[in-house]
Amino acid sequence: SFYDLAANDLKKLLDKYCLKPIGTHTGLEGLQTSLDDLIRYSTTIGSKDVTLAYYNSDHRDDWLRLCAVLESVGERL
Fold it and tell me: What predicted TM-score, i.e. pTM, was given to this entire model?
């Protein structure tokens, strides 16, 4: 969840203030270990896009591994 706010509660706040989420940022660990939860949360609040917030590496092989992870995540989204 976002700041320990349940998805339904965040959705109510968004609706109250006539806001629509345009996406969510998440860390790589969240994409790898909590993707089902992230999908449920994003769907509940009406967010259609999930973004990897940050990744940094100086090594080509790390970037290639990241691409494989993101391809797998993308297939599920």
Answer: 0.80
